Amino acid sequence: MLCQNYIEAERFRKRNLCAECGDEPQLYPNREGGYDVRCQNRNHKGFTKLKSYTQIWREGQAVPLIIANKIQNKYGGDRMDSTTLAKASRTEMERRLNLAMKSFGFVVEETGLSRAPNLNEVKLLVDYCLTYAFDPLLNEVCLYQGRPYPMIDGLRRKAQETEKYRGLKMEPVLDPATKVALGYKEQDIVFKATVRKAENGEIAEFERYGGVTQQEINEMSKRDPTKHRHPVVYKNPSDSAQNRAERDALRAAFQFNFPGVQGLPVVIEGEWGGKGGEKAAKGQPPPPSPIKGEDFPKPEAIKNLGMLFESARKYFDLQPADTMKILGVETKEQIADTSEAWRRILEAKVPKQGEREEVKTSE
Length: 363
Ligand SMILES: [Zn+2]
Prior knowledge:
Elements: E1 2-3, H1 6-15, E2 16-18, E3 26-29, E4 35-38, E5 47-49, H2 53-58, H3 65-75, H4 82-87, H5 90-100, E6 107-108, E7 113-115, H6 119-132, E8 141-144, E9 147-150, H7 152-161, E10 165-172, H8 176-181, E11 189-199, E12 202-212, H9 214-218, H10 231-235, H11 237-254, E13 271-272, H12 275-280, H13 305-316, H14 320-327, H15 338-349
Parallel strand pairs: 6-8, 7-13
Antiparallel strand pairs: 1-4, 2-5, 3-4, 6-7, 8-9, 10-11, 11-12
Helix pairs in contact: 5-6, 7-11, 13-15
The protein binds zinc ion.
The site of zinc ion has 7 residues, from loops.
Protein backbone atom coordinates (compact mmCIF):
# COMPACT_ATOMS: atom_id res chain seq x y z
CA MET A 1 0.00 0.00 0.00
CA LEU A 2 1.63 3.26 -1.10
CA CYS A 3 0.71 6.28 1.00
CA GLN A 4 1.57 9.81 0.07
CA ASN A 5 2.66 10.99 3.48
CA TYR A 6 3.68 9.73 6.88
CA ILE A 7 0.44 10.55 8.68
CA GLU A 8 -1.68 8.71 6.18
CA ALA A 9 0.72 5.75 6.21
CA GLU A 10 0.68 5.55 10.02
CA ARG A 11 -3.06 5.78 10.09
CA PHE A 12 -3.41 2.95 7.62
CA ARG A 13 -0.81 0.88 9.46
CA LYS A 14 -2.63 1.16 12.78
CA ARG A 15 -5.98 0.16 11.39
CA ASN A 16 -4.93 -2.88 9.41
CA LEU A 17 -3.27 -6.25 9.86
CA CYS A 18 -1.53 -8.42 7.28
CA ALA A 19 -4.23 -10.58 5.70
CA GLU A 20 -1.87 -13.55 5.46
CA CYS A 21 -0.12 -13.72 8.85
CA GLY A 22 -2.01 -11.23 11.01
CA ASP A 23 1.11 -9.23 11.86
CA GLU A 24 1.07 -5.47 12.11
CA PRO A 25 2.25 -3.96 8.85
CA GLN A 26 5.36 -1.76 8.77
CA LEU A 27 6.31 1.49 7.03
CA TYR A 28 9.01 1.55 4.39
CA PRO A 29 10.05 4.83 2.76
CA ASN A 30 9.43 4.68 -0.97
CA ARG A 31 12.22 5.76 -3.29
CA GLU A 32 9.89 7.94 -5.32
CA GLY A 33 8.31 9.58 -2.27
CA GLY A 34 5.74 8.54 0.30
CA TYR A 35 5.71 5.32 2.25
CA ASP A 36 4.97 1.73 1.45
CA VAL A 37 2.90 0.02 4.10
CA ARG A 38 3.31 -3.74 4.00
CA CYS A 39 4.02 -6.86 6.00
CA GLN A 40 7.62 -7.53 7.00
CA ASN A 41 7.31 -10.52 4.75
CA ARG A 42 7.24 -8.82 1.39
CA ASN A 43 5.49 -11.76 -0.26
CA HIS A 44 2.40 -11.24 1.87
CA LYS A 45 -0.42 -9.44 0.14
CA GLY A 46 -3.55 -7.78 1.43
CA PHE A 47 -4.80 -6.40 4.72
CA THR A 48 -7.61 -7.10 7.11
CA LYS A 49 -9.14 -3.99 8.56
CA LEU A 50 -9.17 -3.85 12.35
CA LYS A 51 -12.54 -2.99 13.71
CA SER A 52 -12.85 -0.39 16.39
CA TYR A 53 -15.10 -1.12 19.35
CA THR A 54 -17.40 1.55 17.98
CA GLN A 55 -17.85 -0.37 14.77
CA ILE A 56 -18.45 -3.64 16.61
CA TRP A 57 -21.02 -1.90 18.80
CA ARG A 58 -22.72 -0.41 15.75
CA GLU A 59 -23.06 -3.89 14.39
CA GLY A 60 -24.93 -4.93 17.50
CA GLN A 61 -22.23 -7.27 18.79
CA ALA A 62 -20.90 -7.47 22.33
CA VAL A 63 -18.18 -5.08 23.45
CA PRO A 64 -16.80 -4.73 27.01
CA LEU A 65 -19.39 -3.04 29.20
CA ILE A 66 -17.17 -0.13 30.15
CA ILE A 67 -16.53 0.61 26.47
CA ALA A 68 -20.21 0.21 25.59
CA ASN A 69 -21.10 2.77 28.27
CA LYS A 70 -18.50 5.18 26.95
CA ILE A 71 -19.80 4.85 23.40
CA GLN A 72 -23.39 5.31 24.50
CA ASN A 73 -22.47 8.41 26.47
CA LYS A 74 -20.76 9.79 23.44
CA TYR A 75 -23.72 9.12 21.15
CA GLY A 76 -26.27 10.08 23.78
CA GLY A 77 -28.30 6.93 23.27
CA ASP A 78 -28.45 3.21 22.90
CA ARG A 79 -28.01 1.34 19.67
CA MET A 80 -31.36 0.26 18.24
CA ASP A 81 -32.00 -2.70 15.95
CA SER A 82 -34.06 -2.16 12.82
CA THR A 83 -37.27 -3.53 14.34
CA THR A 84 -37.10 -1.02 17.17
CA LEU A 85 -36.13 1.78 14.80
CA ALA A 86 -39.11 1.16 12.54
CA LYS A 87 -41.38 1.51 15.57
CA ALA A 88 -39.70 4.64 16.91
CA SER A 89 -41.64 7.88 17.15
CA ARG A 90 -40.90 10.92 14.99
CA THR A 91 -39.81 12.75 18.11
CA GLU A 92 -37.31 10.02 18.95
CA MET A 93 -35.94 10.02 15.38
CA GLU A 94 -35.54 13.79 15.45
CA ARG A 95 -33.87 13.57 18.83
CA ARG A 96 -31.40 11.04 17.48
CA LEU A 97 -30.75 13.17 14.42
CA ASN A 98 -30.08 16.25 16.53
CA LEU A 99 -27.73 14.33 18.80
CA ALA A 100 -25.78 13.04 15.83
CA MET A 101 -25.39 16.54 14.48
CA LYS A 102 -22.43 17.10 16.75
CA SER A 103 -20.45 14.93 14.39
CA PHE A 104 -22.19 15.09 11.04
CA GLY A 105 -24.42 17.52 9.20
CA PHE A 106 -26.51 15.05 7.13
CA VAL A 107 -26.86 17.17 4.00
CA VAL A 108 -23.85 16.12 1.94
CA GLU A 109 -22.53 18.56 -0.65
CA GLU A 110 -20.66 17.63 -3.83
CA THR A 111 -17.38 18.08 -1.96
CA GLY A 112 -18.28 15.42 0.61
CA LEU A 113 -18.60 18.01 3.38
CA SER A 114 -21.95 18.16 5.09
CA ARG A 115 -24.12 20.94 6.41
CA ALA A 116 -27.04 20.91 8.84
CA PRO A 117 -30.46 20.21 7.33
CA ASN A 118 -33.24 22.81 7.22
CA LEU A 119 -36.67 21.86 8.55
CA ASN A 120 -37.89 20.37 5.28
CA GLU A 121 -34.70 18.33 4.98
CA VAL A 122 -35.08 17.08 8.54
CA LYS A 123 -38.52 15.82 7.57
CA LEU A 124 -37.16 13.95 4.53
CA LEU A 125 -34.43 12.33 6.61
CA VAL A 126 -36.74 11.33 9.44
CA ASP A 127 -39.30 9.88 6.99
CA TYR A 128 -36.59 7.82 5.33
CA CYS A 129 -35.22 6.56 8.65
CA LEU A 130 -38.67 5.57 9.92
CA THR A 131 -39.72 3.88 6.69
CA TYR A 132 -36.54 1.92 6.04
CA ALA A 133 -35.22 1.60 9.61
CA PHE A 134 -31.98 3.54 9.58
CA ASP A 135 -30.49 5.23 12.59
CA PRO A 136 -29.51 8.88 12.26
CA LEU A 137 -27.70 8.66 15.59
CA LEU A 138 -25.13 6.43 13.92
CA ASN A 139 -24.90 8.59 10.79
CA GLU A 140 -26.45 5.90 8.63
CA VAL A 141 -28.19 8.28 6.23
CA CYS A 142 -27.61 11.48 4.33
CA LEU A 143 -29.34 13.79 1.88
CA TYR A 144 -27.60 14.43 -1.40
CA GLN A 145 -29.06 16.72 -4.04
CA GLY A 146 -32.37 16.62 -2.19
CA ARG A 147 -32.65 12.82 -1.98
CA PRO A 148 -32.03 10.49 0.97
CA TYR A 149 -29.29 7.87 0.70
CA PRO A 150 -27.88 5.28 3.07
CA MET A 151 -24.27 5.87 4.17
CA ILE A 152 -21.77 3.03 4.46
CA ASP A 153 -22.75 2.35 8.09
CA GLY A 154 -26.37 2.00 7.04
CA LEU A 155 -25.39 -0.60 4.45
CA ARG A 156 -23.28 -2.44 7.03
CA ARG A 157 -26.27 -2.54 9.39
CA LYS A 158 -28.53 -4.01 6.74
CA ALA A 159 -25.91 -6.57 5.76
CA GLN A 160 -25.40 -7.60 9.39
CA GLU A 161 -29.10 -7.95 9.96
CA THR A 162 -29.54 -10.51 7.21
CA GLU A 163 -27.45 -12.81 9.46
CA LYS A 164 -25.75 -14.02 6.28
CA TYR A 165 -22.86 -11.58 6.42
CA ARG A 166 -19.57 -13.41 6.96
CA GLY A 167 -17.01 -10.65 6.80
CA LEU A 168 -15.05 -8.32 4.59
CA LYS A 169 -11.58 -8.57 3.12
CA MET A 170 -9.91 -5.42 1.83
CA GLU A 171 -6.86 -5.50 -0.43
CA PRO A 172 -5.03 -2.66 -2.14
CA VAL A 173 -4.61 -3.04 -5.88
CA LEU A 174 -0.95 -2.34 -6.49
CA ASP A 175 -0.35 -3.74 -9.95
CA PRO A 176 -0.40 -0.85 -12.44
CA ALA A 177 -1.67 -3.04 -15.27
CA THR A 178 -4.64 -4.14 -13.16
CA LYS A 179 -5.43 -0.54 -12.31
CA VAL A 180 -5.38 0.44 -15.95
CA ALA A 181 -7.57 -2.53 -16.83
CA LEU A 182 -10.06 -1.32 -14.22
CA GLY A 183 -10.15 2.11 -15.83
CA TYR A 184 -7.81 3.86 -13.41
CA LYS A 185 -4.39 5.40 -13.88
CA GLU A 186 -1.24 3.98 -12.31
CA GLN A 187 -1.12 6.60 -9.54
CA ASP A 188 -4.75 6.23 -8.51
CA ILE A 189 -5.60 4.54 -5.21
CA VAL A 190 -7.64 1.40 -5.78
CA PHE A 191 -8.91 -1.29 -3.42
CA LYS A 192 -10.62 -4.61 -3.87
CA ALA A 193 -13.31 -5.44 -1.33
CA THR A 194 -14.50 -9.02 -0.91
CA VAL A 195 -17.74 -9.47 1.01
CA ARG A 196 -18.40 -13.01 2.23
CA LYS A 197 -21.96 -14.19 2.53
CA ALA A 198 -23.56 -17.46 3.64
CA GLU A 199 -25.56 -18.89 0.76
CA ASN A 200 -27.13 -22.36 0.60
CA GLY A 201 -24.76 -23.76 3.19
CA GLU A 202 -21.70 -22.33 1.45
CA ILE A 203 -19.77 -19.10 1.57
CA ALA A 204 -20.16 -16.94 -1.51
CA GLU A 205 -17.69 -14.14 -2.21
CA PHE A 206 -18.57 -10.85 -3.86
CA GLU A 207 -15.65 -8.79 -5.14
CA ARG A 208 -15.85 -5.17 -6.13
CA TYR A 209 -13.28 -2.47 -6.76
CA GLY A 210 -13.32 1.10 -5.54
CA GLY A 211 -10.86 3.88 -6.09
CA VAL A 212 -10.06 7.53 -6.00
CA THR A 213 -8.16 9.20 -8.80
CA GLN A 214 -5.21 11.52 -8.36
CA GLN A 215 -7.24 14.13 -10.19
CA GLU A 216 -9.95 13.86 -7.55
CA ILE A 217 -7.38 14.10 -4.75
CA ASN A 218 -5.58 17.12 -6.12
CA GLU A 219 -8.35 19.07 -7.82
CA MET A 220 -8.87 22.55 -6.38
CA SER A 221 -12.25 24.19 -5.91
CA LYS A 222 -13.35 26.49 -8.73
CA ARG A 223 -15.10 28.80 -6.29
CA ASP A 224 -12.17 29.03 -3.89
CA PRO A 225 -8.86 28.00 -5.50
CA THR A 226 -7.18 27.83 -2.08
CA LYS A 227 -9.42 24.91 -1.11
CA HIS A 228 -9.61 21.36 -2.38
CA ARG A 229 -12.64 20.47 -4.42
CA HIS A 230 -13.03 17.15 -2.57
CA PRO A 231 -11.61 17.80 0.90
CA VAL A 232 -12.85 14.51 2.35
CA VAL A 233 -11.14 12.51 -0.37
CA TYR A 234 -8.04 14.70 -0.20
CA LYS A 235 -7.71 14.10 3.52
CA ASN A 236 -8.09 10.32 3.52
CA PRO A 237 -7.98 9.04 -0.03
CA SER A 238 -7.47 5.42 0.95
CA ASP A 239 -10.44 5.49 3.35
CA SER A 240 -12.61 6.85 0.55
CA ALA A 241 -11.40 4.23 -1.90
CA GLN A 242 -12.05 1.46 0.63
CA ASN A 243 -15.53 2.76 1.44
CA ARG A 244 -16.43 2.79 -2.23
CA ALA A 245 -15.19 -0.74 -2.77
CA GLU A 246 -17.01 -2.01 0.33
CA ARG A 247 -20.19 -0.20 -0.61
CA ASP A 248 -20.34 -1.81 -4.04
CA ALA A 249 -19.43 -5.26 -2.71
CA LEU A 250 -22.15 -5.05 -0.04
CA ARG A 251 -24.62 -3.94 -2.64
CA ALA A 252 -23.67 -6.82 -4.94
CA ALA A 253 -23.92 -9.37 -2.13
CA PHE A 254 -27.18 -8.30 -0.56
CA GLN A 255 -29.28 -6.73 -3.35
CA PHE A 256 -30.72 -4.12 -1.02
CA ASN A 257 -33.93 -2.68 -2.34
CA PHE A 258 -34.59 0.45 -0.35
CA PRO A 259 -34.75 3.64 -2.41
CA GLY A 260 -31.51 5.44 -3.07
CA VAL A 261 -29.29 2.40 -2.88
CA GLN A 262 -29.31 1.68 -6.62
CA GLY A 263 -28.06 5.11 -7.50
CA LEU A 264 -25.68 5.71 -4.61
CA PRO A 265 -23.57 8.75 -5.44
CA VAL A 266 -19.79 8.59 -5.32
CA VAL A 267 -19.95 11.13 -2.54
CA ILE A 268 -20.97 9.06 0.41
CA GLU A 269 -18.10 9.73 2.78
CA GLY A 270 -19.54 12.91 4.26
CA GLU A 271 -18.19 14.90 7.16
CA TRP A 272 -18.98 18.23 8.78
CA GLY A 273 -18.39 21.22 6.55
CA GLY A 274 -18.19 23.80 9.35
CA LYS A 275 -19.27 27.39 8.77
CA GLY A 276 -21.42 26.94 5.68
CA GLY A 277 -23.45 24.45 7.64
CA GLU A 278 -24.23 26.80 10.48
CA LYS A 279 -25.62 29.36 8.10
CA ALA A 280 -27.97 26.83 6.54
CA ALA A 281 -28.86 25.49 9.94
CA LYS A 282 -31.20 28.14 11.24
CA GLY A 283 -33.04 26.76 14.22
CA GLN A 284 -30.76 23.72 14.37
CA PRO A 285 -28.12 23.17 17.03
CA PRO A 286 -24.60 23.94 15.80
CA PRO A 287 -21.95 21.27 16.34
CA PRO A 288 -20.51 21.76 19.81
CA SER A 289 -16.86 22.60 20.22
CA PRO A 290 -14.64 19.62 20.91
CA ILE A 291 -14.52 18.34 24.46
CA LYS A 292 -11.18 18.20 26.15
CA GLY A 293 -9.78 14.71 26.48
CA GLU A 294 -12.21 13.24 24.02
CA ASP A 295 -12.23 15.13 20.79
CA PHE A 296 -9.79 17.62 19.38
CA PRO A 297 -10.15 20.24 16.68
CA LYS A 298 -9.72 18.72 13.26
CA PRO A 299 -6.51 19.66 11.46
CA GLU A 300 -8.30 21.68 8.79
CA ALA A 301 -9.85 23.81 11.54
CA ILE A 302 -6.41 25.08 12.57
CA LYS A 303 -6.02 27.89 10.11
CA ASN A 304 -3.20 30.00 11.54
CA LEU A 305 -0.32 30.04 13.99
CA GLY A 306 -2.43 31.65 16.70
CA MET A 307 -4.96 28.82 16.59
CA LEU A 308 -2.18 26.25 16.50
CA PHE A 309 -0.42 27.52 19.62
CA GLU A 310 -3.67 28.23 21.42
CA SER A 311 -4.98 24.71 20.77
CA ALA A 312 -1.69 23.15 21.81
CA ARG A 313 -1.90 25.09 25.06
CA LYS A 314 -5.58 24.39 25.64
CA TYR A 315 -5.64 20.69 24.87
CA PHE A 316 -2.15 19.55 25.78
CA ASP A 317 -0.87 22.29 28.07
CA LEU A 318 2.00 22.99 25.68
CA GLN A 319 3.98 26.21 25.69
CA PRO A 320 4.87 27.56 22.22
CA ALA A 321 8.47 26.37 22.72
CA ASP A 322 7.21 22.83 23.43
CA THR A 323 4.96 22.91 20.40
CA MET A 324 7.84 23.95 18.16
CA LYS A 325 10.03 21.26 19.66
CA ILE A 326 7.48 18.57 18.76
CA LEU A 327 7.30 19.98 15.24
CA GLY A 328 11.08 20.07 15.00
CA VAL A 329 11.27 23.76 14.11
CA GLU A 330 13.19 26.60 15.71
CA THR A 331 11.07 29.54 14.67
CA LYS A 332 7.35 29.99 14.09
CA GLU A 333 8.08 31.08 10.54
CA GLN A 334 9.25 27.56 9.74
CA ILE A 335 5.72 26.24 10.24
CA ALA A 336 4.37 26.38 6.72
CA ASP A 337 1.11 24.49 7.11
CA THR A 338 -0.66 24.92 10.44
CA SER A 339 -3.21 22.17 9.73
CA GLU A 340 -0.45 19.68 9.04
CA ALA A 341 1.38 20.89 12.14
CA TRP A 342 -1.70 20.27 14.30
CA ARG A 343 -2.05 16.84 12.78
CA ARG A 344 1.47 16.07 13.92
CA ILE A 345 0.82 17.42 17.42
CA LEU A 346 -2.20 15.11 17.66
CA GLU A 347 -0.11 12.18 16.46
CA ALA A 348 2.46 12.95 19.13
CA LYS A 349 0.11 13.67 22.03
CA VAL A 350 -2.96 11.48 21.71
CA PRO A 351 -2.42 8.23 23.67
CA LYS A 352 -1.46 5.37 21.41
CA GLN A 353 -2.83 2.49 23.45
CA GLY A 354 -6.37 3.83 23.10
CA GLU A 355 -6.07 3.80 19.34
CA ARG A 356 -8.13 0.66 18.76
CA GLU A 357 -10.67 1.44 21.42
CA GLU A 358 -11.23 4.97 20.36
CA VAL A 359 -14.73 6.27 20.45
CA LYS A 360 -15.18 7.96 17.17
CA THR A 361 -18.20 9.08 15.26
CA SER A 362 -16.52 9.85 12.00
CA GLU A 363 -15.82 6.34 10.78
ZN1 LIG B 1 2.27 -11.07 6.79
